[in-house]
């Protein structure tokens, strides 16, 4: 029970395939109490059914991360219920479909702003919303992808957003170190989720990853979940500002 008595927020469960759900399963298995936040009422209903089907007790809240008043309201509610927040997982991203195909050079200003706002800035704004309740230190995790470091054709604006997300992780780790709050990213290999299906040729990416990864298999949400457990628990107490690859070694290869 690595997280017995620990309480925290996971942002980004949409369904049982979500990476955030893999993280929720690992953290609750080790005794954590969770609040899950969902973008809309529709997603919340699905997540309620998922939580019920697994006989879990997580509280579920609506929070569109681009809506400051909704964010404040949901974090204050969670903070009052919990008394203290020990960890936060940011597992959300969004870009327009037309910006995840073709050439990066064609990205519109609106498409660029939207991808950066939802996928990058929300790490900072969600951290700020959680901060008043993180009174005893803690751990914050964001989800990234190899497209932050290398050109992955089709990933385009999201690669730029993930590069900025990884830089945000380092700046937040610097800022919050004095409060004993650690901030890290997990760079996951391709996983077949709702968000991933928005990327052009995603199934080809998935097949190629399986064939090329040194460990010869694709990443699972459970593998990501257990790395999040390590970073969230005392086991990761010396680690901050890092990007940890959980991709069965895929990042080791040249394109
Ligand atoms: P997913 O579709 O299951 O989760 C994405 C979540 O983002 C959904 O719950 C959606 O409701 C939420 N979201 C989008 N806009 C939001 C907003 N404005 N406010 C609140 N929530 C919002 O897909 P996923 O693949 O599990 O994505 C989770 C994270 O993992 C993302 O950051 C993604 O970029 C990252 N990631 C995914 C892969 C992959 O191959 N699937 C690989 C590496 C990293």
Provide a descriptive summary of the structure in words.
The protein is of the alpha/beta class and 255 residues long. It contains seven helices and seven strands. It has helices at 19-29, 41-53, 68-82, 109-130, 156-176, 202-212, 221-232, and strands at residues 7-11, 33-38, 59-62, 87-90, 138-144, 181-188, 243-246. Nicotinamide-adenine-dinucleotide binds at residues 12-14, 18-20, 39, 43, 64-66, 91-94, 118, 143-145, 188, 190-191, 193-196.
Please list the strands of the largest sheet in the order they lie side by side: 3-2-1-4-5-6-7
Main sheet summary: 7 strands, parallel
Low-confidence stretches: none
Structural class: alpha/beta
Q: Outline, from the CA principal axes?
A: globular
Element layout with pairings:
Elements: E1 7-11, H1 19-29, E2 33-38, H2 41-53, E3 59-62, H3 68-82, E4 87-90, H4 109-130, E5 138-144, H5 156-176, E6 181-188, H6 202-212, H7 221-232, E7 243-246
Parallel strand pairs: 1-2, 1-4, 2-3, 4-5, 5-6, 6-7
The structure holds nicotinamide-adenine-dinucleotide.
Outline:
The protein is an alpha/beta fold and 255 residues long.
Q: Keywords, please?
A:
single chain, 255 residues, alpha/beta, seven-stranded parallel sheet, 7 helices, 7 strands
